[in-house]
Write a structure and sequence with these properties.
Rossmann-like_a/b/a_fold, alpha/beta, five-stranded parallel β-sheet, DUF218, 8 helices, DUF218 domain-containing protein, Cell_Envelope_Assoc, 2 domains
């Protein structure tokens, strides 16, 4: 595997772009009852929620997430807590934000957020699910399994692949996460954690080549 760099290796670019495009649901933003920001190492999730809230796409945002080994150093008080602080600093009113600080995976993000909203008597018919760009498809499939009665639109901070890699500062990490999320599309559907998603041959072939190139750290 190449040394740590913020630039995609030319030899892998086509395959990485294939996976990047596959995980983007290409949903057009539309108004919803609630925005849900899924916790991760990527503060861009909160930035996307701030932007959509400011443009009037939803009146309430729930940030959900505890910590994972990849986030505890950056967000020591918890992913959702740091997201909330970032949003308030950007001008989102505190009363427009709910925090779900316990979820440790995407399934828990959805389940625990539903509980938080239900406990407050908030009726939800539509949501904007905000995640890292390469998490969109998995988050969508998980939400459709666990919360099938709501209308789901996926959103992420609108950054081209190269800009996203540069912002994260580690191409290896982005590629590894892309590969891991691609595997999970199939695995989680088989386990009943998510609804099945079609995966074109070109995506499977790109995934196989990246696995062969050594990007296996996030495989189950």
């Amino acid at each position: 595997m190449p040394a740590r760099t913020a630039t995609l290796p030319d030899s892998l670019r086509a395959d990485v772009e294939t996976l990047w495009d596959y995980h983007d649901m290409h949903h057009e933003p539309r108004p919803a009852d609630v925005g849900i920001g899924l916790g991760s190492h990527d503060l861009g999730v909160a930035s996307c929620a701030i932007e959509l809230f400011g443009n009037g796409f939803f009146p309430l945002v729930v940030f959900t997430g505890a910590n994972a080994p990849t986030t505890v150093d950056r967000f020591p008080r918890g992913e959702a807590v740091h997201y909330r602080e970032h949003a308030i600093e950007a001008g989102v009113p505190p009363e427009a934000i709910l925090v779900e600080p316990h979820a440790r995976n995407t399934g828990e993000n959805i389940t625990f957020t539903r509980q938080v909203l239900a406990e407050r008597g908030i009726e939800v018919g539509s949501i904007v699910l905000i995640s890292r760009p390469y998490q969109q498809r998995r988050a969508y499939a998980t939400c459709r399994k666990l919360w099938p009665e709501v209308t789901v639109t996926c959103a992420s901070l609108a950054l081209p692949l190269d800009e996203y890699v540069a912002a994260i500062g580690d191409a290896d990490r982005v590629i590894t996460m892309l590969v891991g999320d691609t595997q999970r599309i199939d695995v989680y559907a088989r386990k009943g954690f998510a609804i099945p998603q079609e995966m074109p041959d070109r995506v499977r072939e790109a995934y196989d080549r990246l696995v062969s190139a050594g990007y296996t750290a996030r495989l189950i």
